[in-house]
Design a protein that fits this description.
This protein is an alpha+beta fold. The chain is built from 19 helices and 7 strands. It is a multi-pass membrane protein.
């Protein structure tokens, strides 16, 4: 009886190893994409010539429990080598070659990279980091990987462990916690949160512009968003018809994140969320996908194997002689049983710690996690906060002008390639930002607590401008913010010109 009850209770936490393999590959592709985007700002964001030199990082934005290989040097050449190392590890993870080591290495490099410049971090970074962290303990290299070459075929694809429990709980926490943190009237009673979100020109996407005139629809979508995040994760823990309810969760949340990505500029967050949802695909869904796409995938794999045989052996990570087994065969002897027990105990403690961290700030102060206990979260970067547009949506909006005065007295806007300064709102404020990292930087730049950032940004932009011999030298540069406050009923206050910082040669 107890055995049957245990089997029922564990159903919500059984994952398909093929879905986990897709999760592994999706995470690897996102890592490579993230590195590619970040590499375009190698000097700006990661060197001493950029907006956050090392001495400023350690003085203003460093946690003593953190670590970062990227802080070993402030020159771009070292940063480039570290980027290449991270990319090589991500490729190894994609191929499933020595998967566990590639996962650990990718996680370490990601933590190191994120710690180097916390002023450009966003919510998706937390989720990507946690997917890699739990991936260390998941068998996501058991199939569709170099490690799987030569291993016996699995009799079943279902897998249950403490790590799968942690993964499912982590996904649920992302949505439930962000719903609990959205406790402002705009979310809970008024239904105006999406109206205010789409009033933010800095993140407004084209589909958002189409949606913005429809006030009642936005009010309805606000309530739908709030209750979807709050209640839908319950489906992940229903022990009957588990595959059906999990598939409903995955499909609905896929549509949810597609909607977000089409209306708001959220960087890689929606792709990272897609990757997490892929890991939840139930076995019937994976069987269907195998029927539809399996033959084509096998043809591609056969071609790659044929192509790989033409290369020298030391260049081919898929060769059998380089394989490792995820589950080495250990003799059934009592002295070997201690390791799984210790591993599961550690994972349970890590899961409890993660849940406590997430609930801190939501539950009563009596259960707050005190500072001496937070060292582990900061050191291993299991710290996380899912306050997306919470507790309320920002009302302050606006756009930047890099107002430079040339030696002959003309005012030029560095943000717009040196054209004459105009204070009119641009057609697309979002287009002023090169990527989401710069958008997040500009958001943090506004806060009074981050006022220390401003001189470094101003001087960096002036130096970059004057590196181009075709640009006229500047006598002075002001970072101007045209502040525009969103009000109810499609009203705005402003814009008002605010000089955030100024610098001279």
């Amino acid at each position: 009886m107890l055995t049957q009850l245990a089997a029922v209770l564990r159903r919500p936490f059984v994952l398909d190893v093929r879905a986990m393999a897709l999760l592994r590959m999706a995470v690897a592709v996102i890592l490579l994409t993230d590195l590619a985007i970040r590499s375009t700002d190698l000097e700006a964001h990661y060197t001493n010539l950029g907006v956050l030199p090392l001495h400023v990082l350690f003085e203003r934005a460093w946690n003593p429990y953190q670590f970062s290989l990227h802080t070993s040097s402030g020159i771009w050449e070292i940063q480039a080598l570290l980027f290449l190392l991270a990319a090589a590890l991500a490729v190894g993870l994609l191929l499933g070659w020595r998967t566990r080591w590639m996962t650990v290495g990718s996680w370490l490099m990601l933590v190191s990279l994120q710690n180097r410049n916390p002023m450009i971090a966003q919510g998706g970074d937390d989720l990507l980091r946690m997917l890699l962290f739990w991936g260390i303990f998941l068998p996501w290299g058991r199939v569709w990987s170099a490690d799987a070459q030569g291993q016996p075929a699995l009799r079943q694809y279902s897998h249950f462990s403490v790590a799968t429990v942690a993964f499912v709980v982590q996904i649920a926490l992302v949505y439930v916690c962000t719903a609990f943190l959205k406790n402002a009237p705009e979310w809970t009673t008024e239904g105006t949160a999406i109206y205010y979100a789409l009033s933010l020109d800095q993140v407004l996407m084209p589909v958002g512009r189409l949606l913005y005139p429809h006030y009642e629809l936005m009010r309805w979508l606000t309530h739908l968003t709030y209750y979807t995040e709050l209640l839908l994760p319950v489906l992940l823990f229903i022990p009957v018809a588990t595959n059906f309810f999990r598939l409903v969760f995955v499909v609905v949340m896929f549509g949810f994140h597609i909607g977000i990505s089409l209306t708001l500029f959220v960087g890689l967050f929606f792709l990272i969320s897609f990757a997490a949802l892929v890991g939840l695909l139930p076995t019937p869904a994976m069987n269907w996908l195998g029927t539809k796409f399996g033959p084509g995938v096998r043809r591609v794999a056969a071609y790659l194997r044929e192509w790989g045989q033409r290369l020298p052996g030391w260049l081919v990570p898929l060769q059998v002689q380089m394989q490792v087994q995820w589950h080495p065969r250990i003799p059934a002897h009592p002295q070997f049983r201690l390791l799984p027990v210790l591993r599961n105990t550690v994972l349970l403690v890590l899961l409890a710690y993660t849940v406590w961290w997430n609930l801190d700030g939501i539950v009563t102060p009596r259960y707050t996690m005190h500072q001496p206990l937070r060292w582990f979260g900061y050191l291993f970067r299991t710290d996380q906060h899912w306050g997306m547009f919470a507790p309320a949506v920002f009302k302050d909006d606006g756009w930047y002008i890099l107002e430079g005065r040339t030696n002959d007295g003309r005012l030029v806007d560095l943000y717009r390639g040196g054209r004459p300064v105009t204070y009119a709102k641009p057609a697309s404020v979002m287009a002023l930002h090169k990527n989401d990292r710069w958008r997040k930087y500009s958001e943090n730049y506004l806060f009074i607590d981050n006022e220390w950032m401003r001189p470094y940004y101003c001087n960096y932009m002036r130096r970059i401008w004057e590196k181009d011999p075709s640009h006229k030298p500047l006598r002075h540069l002001d970072v101007v913010y045209m502040k525009e406050v969103s009000l109810p009923n499609y009203q705005v206050e402003g814009p008002t010109r605010q000089v955030l910082c100024g610098c001279e040669p």
